[in-house]
Design a protein that fits this description.
Layout: E1 2-6, H1 10-25, E2 31-35, E3 48-51, H2 53-57, E4 69-72, E5 80-83, E6 92-95, H3 104-114, H4 118-133, H5 140-148, H6 153-168, H7 196-215, H8 221-235, H9 248-261, H10 270-280, E7 284-286, E8 293-294, H11 304-330
Parallel strand pairs: 1-2, 1-8, 2-7, 3-5
Antiparallel strand pairs: 3-4, 5-6
């Protein structure tokens, strides 16, 4: 059995790898060639973290024993590119690996901890204590997820708690234990959903943050707004409820964050992992072919996050087409 795929793209490499792997699993001999030059494939740099079945199964950044978690190393000072979308085929964002924070609210929190004023230090300690009680940490990467991940606020909260607890090793208190057992009355302020002792502490923190923001020209406003947003969504939870469990993709990314933050050694070009696996399985590159099969071959964007999304979209598309390609080889149309 033979097949030639056309295009120097991640899609052709993934299709070639999966076809060769399937042939091996069925004990059949198959030759797969790619009409194109491997050096023309768009370079996709790490560090990056994503849960992607196609990439993991093709040997890209796979951490054995961690399922579909893909971790591509990169320079320690470079922000970590992250996607919470299945197979990385959705939005991407960055989290910090250098202790500075990427999201404005994270930077405001770190500035608060360094502030020399007594009120600021007190406020920073209160926020840190809330994180510690929940079992999470004040790691800038976790805070970047909490404040800036492109998902719903309560989903951000769930992912950040899972990631923070995996870093700290602590279990922490359920976040909903601070909510009263009564639903929020119509027209009531979100803070009224908190238990009395929790509400008093939160109100004191918000008053302090408002005062500091007024003095500093809004320096801590991003942090204040982010906390209020999370509290507002928490207040809308039904009585005696819990945060929704994370789906496998979100859980894999949250649990893999710790390793991804320290992944600096090894191949930092994701596309090279595809090339290496393809060649290992016996795949060849050629410069001529009579009737090659065309797969997506659009040019990669220049923006790093958009390039990662392009890379994952191509690999996901190719993985979904493999069944049909396999049928065309085993039972070609007459």
């Amino acid at each position: 059995m033979n097949m030639i795929l056309k295009g120097s793209s991640p899609a052709t490499l993934v299709a070639g790898i999966l076809l060769l792997s399937r042939a091996r699993s069925f004990g059949q001999r198959m030759a797969v060639g790619i009409l194109g030059d491997p050096t023309d494939i768009g370079v996709v740099h790490g560090p990056a973290l994503v849960a992607s079945v196609p990439l993991a199964s093709c040997g890209v950044g796979r951490d054995y024993g961690s399922g579909a978690t893909v971790i591509v190393p990169g320079p320690a000072a470079e922000p970590l590119a992250v996607s919470l979308a299945p197979n990385g085929a959705g939005d991407w964002f960055c989290v910090d690996r250098g202790g500075q924070g990427v999201h404005p609210a994270t930077r405001a929190f770190l500035a608060l901890r360094r502030d020399t004023r007594t009120r600021a230090r007190w406020l920073g300690q209160q926020l840190l204590r809330a994180l510690e009680l929940s079992g999470s940490t004040a790691d800038p990467a976790v805070l970047d997820i909490l404040f800036g991940a492109p998902v719903a606020p309560l989903t951000r909260l769930g992912v950040a708690l899972r990631a923070g607890r995996s870093l700290s090793g602590a279990r922490g208190e359920p976040i909903t234990r601070w909510l009263s057992e009564h639903p929020l009355p119509d027209g009531a302020a979100p803070l009224e959903r908190l238990r009395p002792e929790s509400r008093e502490a939160v109100e004191a923190c918000l008053r302090s943050a408002e005062s500091l923001s007024a003095e500093d020209g809004g320096r801590y406003r991003p942090l204040q707004d982010a906390v209020v947003e999370l509290l507002t969504h928490l207040a809308m939870l039904p009585p005696f409820s819990i945060l929704s469990p994370l789906d496998p993709t979100l859980d894999a990314v949250a649990f893999g964050l710790g390793k991804a933050l320290t992944a600096t050694e090894g191949g930092s070009e994701a596309q090279q992992g595809l090339v290496d696996t393809y060649r290992f399985l016996g795949g060849k590159f050629t410069d001529s072919a009579m009737h090659p099969v065309c797969l997506p071959d659009d040019l990669p964007p220049t923006d790093r996050l958009l390039r990662w999304r392009w890379f994952c979209l191509q690999t996901d598309t190719a993985a979904k087409r493999v069944d049909r390609l396999w049928r065309d080889v085993v039972d070609p149309p007459q």
